[in-house]
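Re: weekly structure request thread

Next one in the queue (396 aa):
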Amino acid sequence: MKIKALVIALVIASLAGCQSSTTKTPTQKEQAVQQWNKTRASVMGSLAKSQFETGHLDKCEKTLGDAMRLDPQNAGLHILAGRLAIEQGQLEVAQKELATAIQINPKDAEAEYLSGIVYQRWQKPELAYQCYERASQKLPTEAAYVLAKAESLVALGRSEEALALLQGELDHFEHNPVLRHAVGKLQLDLGKPAEAIETLRTAKLLAPEDTEVSEDLAMAYFENHQYRPAAEAFQRLVSIELQANRPELWVALGECQMQLGNFKEARNTFDRATQLNPSSSDTWLRLAKVTLQLGDIPRARMILQKALSLDIASAEAHLLLGYISLRQDRLTEALAEFQKSAALDRADPVSLCMVGYIMEKTGKPQQAIEYYAKALKLKPNDELASHLMASVDLSQ
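Done, posted below.
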């Protein structure tokens, strides 16, 4: 029995060995077929990539499917499948394809980066950041991965950390204008316009034709109260054909001209902005202000009425209209407008002061004091309220 059992065991072992050998070592013909399939899949993958980049997504999907059937272990094909799925809005499919690519080739950085994009679309910035971090570690020479990390940090409310990250990479990407532009934008957003100016000037030297850099540099000048270079920069922008019809640039230029005391130029600039965007109450309000500066009160009143027709709840428009009525000695109208302004913006001491001023002008000093007191309660050191309060004559 022992000999019989031994023979049976040897036979089974022999059969198992043969089967294992057959599985592990393909024949020369099978190896040739596998290599041929990989070569064909590679060629088809290149075709699919070209189809993807030219926007022929249906053709890309078919070509890619054929290629993946020939070589299912090609990480590059799964990455392209992930990109295609992202483009088609099929995020779950994309994530599966990218996870497969990472499993096949754990060192691949692009798959991690694209996974971050998927999580970003899913509004999961923490997971997106982790993907971008891994991508950056795997390929530290790719600036796009560093920028993606910074964007995720901003989305997580960690802008200072994002700025420190980008600044720490400037030496590694010394001649990259995109990275410097991102640093400048963050400095501007964080209320550091002087630093932003220096950074954005360097970015502009590296990319002189980039209008986004020029626009942010102009805004940095404005925020730093350097209105002349800001005006010059905005003027250059609106002189470019592709930028000439952007009303926000004309508004920014007009604000610079206002600050420089060039009221006639500012009026023409704001007028141009209202032509480009006639539905903007704010732009009409700016035009009214500069028109009032030029002493054209009747026209300023008409412009304000236009602004209020677009936004009846504009506290500033009611305040300015009240001021115009006061200038025209129409006290009843002025009081009504100041009261509307005060009701619409309860945090504004100026409207309260002006209501008090009308009360005082109409012989009601005690009521005037009450309004001045309300203004001082909102802003204890308000200069206007303090001055008006001190000048009240209770003997009237």
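The chain has a mean pLDDT of 90. The radius of gyration is 34 Å.
Next request, please.
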